[in-house]
Design goal:
With about 700 residues, the protein is an all-alpha fold. Helices cover about 65% and strands about 0% of the residues. A two-stranded antiparallel ribbon has the order 1-4. The protein has a two-stranded antiparallel ribbon with strand order 2-3.
Length: about 700
């Protein structure tokens, strides 16, 4: 076992504890229990970990460690309000000053073009930072750790890899934008020029749905964590979190969003390094290196993390011990369970606690090879990977914010920024989830499935490792993610309303000043809509994980038609429209059909375990539980992406073969999209030539 000096002991550390006379152990780990665990650890080949330094039968109550500000809160409620509003105001002031300085000393003029495109001359570094910041949602920090606690090591990989490929592929579209639609403001403008009003209205619907889903996930994750940290009501958090975003987005537009995103990304990376260092390099105090009556709530190396997870899989599931699922029982010790607290972490601090079967993560993982948390061969992980890949194609290719970032980038930086941003972003969910997500298991944290589903695994693990400071760092990271992505979504929706509703259908001859006014009004209005939508999701009882898994079913059918608009001359209007709507309708039917065959608790029939609330597997119900089933969401997502493509290409092939359609000429798109304000871009002319762009596309 690793000691404070970094050396490894040859013998089992728990055996040294047993050989000590008198026996020194945790108050709720008697000698006989320690002896049993020690033998099991020896059989499993565990050498570094003292398996008796953890009270495995008593999951660590992270809410008790958090502090004495209510159930699990690490700060007073008023402090939560100050934090949410204070950060928003702070970043509003900083970004506003930066934009103002550029206006004074750089000659910047905030026109409608600049408000929505940032001058079309953003360089590689800032483009990459913006992509990392925009793609770092609340789900990136929370849902990635949730799937780590569900499926083990495969969860973080499928989250990170399944959401990186879309960014890398979008780099191709970024070059195509510069070649074929250099004057565009929104992706719907090119759809309108190529396919007309019906297609424009169709994909406007999908675009707005995408923005709402992304914003809903941001608020669901952020509100849940702020509520757990300070006790702030979730409804209040849903309405107050967007306030700061609205302020600096209203003033500076896309450029302010980019500047703020750079700062946000830097803060997230700093916090990430701190957490990784604590998990893999900082050993615990004396209770982790010697036999004491105090529990070891630290890791310090990858070896200790591995051994803790391996031993966790060995421990029998509580249902295997004859304890009914969801029944409440008290651990068999006179004074209750041992509870270390921030103020008095020493031995002798007891409190009566009640545990349920859901508080434990013992035993083999259903669907994982060997039941291990440490395998990539996971059925559940693979299903999540499919949902993740399909859903994130939708939230990239149908989200105006990513098109807007490509529009804003200068031609020489567009593809480079997306490639660099995608590779850098991969490290955030992969490293954070393998650190904090797996640590929430390895540290034996009291974490019911509903808390993990709400995204509380990272703050729980951070609080156990670092105390209140760890929880506050998670809140800071989360707020950085929410504000940066939220700002991008505000600008995206503002652009859609300004150019694709106001300019297209209300006042085609509008001026730039009018477009700027509309954009700013929409930023404010969308902030209010965000709060209302978050309140709606909270009211119907769906959490971050449910919404995340649902996005592929809802918007995945628009991915292939939208991509074909810019990548092939051989997609027709009817093919695109029928593919999008047909794919979505069939996806929803598939999703509901599969959900109706699931058990009423949301589990698959083969995995059903009887409980007091659900004594038998009753199928046919359609509610939040059954509709949130992973297999149902996977089926819907696959149908949305694949069937939409099949429909679109079949219809297009029929129309071309019959002679009704002719291949599209790209010059029509290049000349058909006009700017309102004819401003010259600060970009060298040679970067806009095909001779320069064609090699980049390859």
């Amino acid at each position: 076992r690793q000691t404070a000096g970094g050396t490894l002991l040859e013998a089992m550390a728990c055996q040294a504890r047993l050989d000590t006379v008198p026996y020194v152990g945790l108050p709720n780990v008697p000698y006989s229990q320690c002896e049993e665990w020690c033998k099991a650890g020896t059989a499993l080949g565990i050498t570094d970990l003292d398996v008796c330094s953890i009270a495995w039968n008593n999951p660590v109550p992270w809410r008790k460690i958090a502090g004495d500000f209510g159930e699990g809160a690490i700060m007073e409620e008023w402090a939560g309000y100050v934090l949410v509003l204070g950060f928003g105001v702070f970043f509003s002031i900083v970004t506003t000053i930066m934009v103002k300085l550029e206006q004074i000393y750089g000659g910047l003029v905030i026109s409608s073009e600049h408000f929505n495109t940032a001058g079309r001359n953003i360089k590689t570094g800032l483009t990459a930072a913006v992509i990392v910041s925009q793609w770092t949602w609340a789900a990136t920090l929370l849902q990635s750790s949730n799937v780590a606690s569900q499926y083990g090591l495969s969860g973080p990989f499928w989250y990170a890899a399944g959401a990186t490929v879309q960014i890398l592929l979008f780099g191709i579209l970024a070059i195509e934008i510069k070649k074929k639609a250099p004057n565009m403001h929104t992706f719907l403008e090119m759809i309108d020029v190529r396919w007309g009003k019906q297609a424009h209205m169709t994909f406007l619907f999908f675009g707005i749905c995408t923005n709402l889903i992304v914003t809903g996930m941001l608020l669901q994750g952020g509100a849940a964590v702020v509520n757990a940290a300070s006790g702030m009501h979730i409804i209040a958090a849903n309405f107050l979190i967007p306030v700061g975003v609205i302020l600096y987005t209203w003033f500076g537009g896309l450029k302010a969003t980019f500047l703020a995103s750079y700062i946000h990304t830097s803060v997230i990376m700093i916090c990430l390094v701190v957490f990784i260092t604590y998990v893999y390099a900082v050993p615990g105090d004396i209770e982790c290196t010697s036999a004491t009556e105090k529990q070891c709530n630290a890791l310090g190396s990858a070896a200790l993390l591995w051994e803790r997870l391996r031993f966790l899989n060995y421990l029998p599931a509580k249902t295997d011990q004859g304890i009914p699922v969801n029944s409440t029982y008290t651990m068999p010790f006179p004074d209750g369970a041992y509870v270390p607290t921030a103020d008095d972490p020493g031995p002798g601090n007891f409190e009566k606690l009640t545990y349920t079967e859901e508080d434990y993560h013992h035993g083999p993982v259903n669907g994982n090879r060997g039941g291990s948390y440490l395998t990539m061969l996971s059925e559940g992980g693979l299903s999540f990977g499919v949902v993740n890949i399909v859903g994130n194609f939708g939230t990239v290719f149908v989200d105006q914010s990513y098109w807007q970032s490509a529009i804003a980038a200068r031609p020489s930086s567009a593809h480079r920024g997306y490639l660099l941003g995608g590779l850098v972003w991969f490290t955030i969910p992969m490293s954070l989830a393998t650190a904090l997500g797996l640590s929430s298991l390895a540290l034996n944290v009291k974490m019911p499935a509903d808390e993990a589903g709400a995204g509380l695994a990272p703050p729980a693990a951070a609080i156990v490792l670092l105390g209140q400071g760890g929880g506050i760092m998670i809140i800071i990271m989360l707020f950085m993610a929410i504000t940066s992505t939220g700002s991008a979504e505000c600008i995206a929706v503002a652009s859609l309303f300004a150019y694709d509703i106001f300019r297209k259908y209300i006042k085609p001859d509008c001026t730039g000043a009018e477009l700027l006014k509309v954009s700013r009004l929409v930023v404010i209005g969308y902030g209010v809509v965000c709060g209302l939508f978050g309140y709606f999701l909270y009211g119907v009882g769906v959490g971050l994980g449910w919404v995340y898994n649902f996005m592929g079913t809802m918007i995945g059918s628009a991915v292939i038609p939208v991509s074909c608009c810019l990548c092939t001359r051989y997609m027709t209007k009817n093919g695109a429209i029928m593919g999008a709507w047909g794919g979505q309708i069939l996806a929803l039917i598939t999703w509901i059909s599969v959900a109706s065959t699931r058990c009423s608790d949301g589990s698959d029939p083969d995995d059903f375990v009887a409980s007091n609330d659900y004594p038998t597997c009753e199928t046919g119900a359609l509610d939040v539980n059954t509709l949130g089933n992973m297999n149902a969401q996977t089926a819907g997502s696959l149908v949305a992406l694949c069937v939409s493509g099949i429909i679109a290409f079949v219809v297009a092939a029929i129309e071309y073969k019959s002679g009704k359609e002719q291949p599209f000429e790209w010059e029509t798109m290049r000349e058909g999209i006009k700017r309102v304000e004819q401003e010259a871009d600060d970009v060298p002319e040679y970067e806009m030539t095909f001779e320069y762009l064609d090699p980049a596309a390859k």
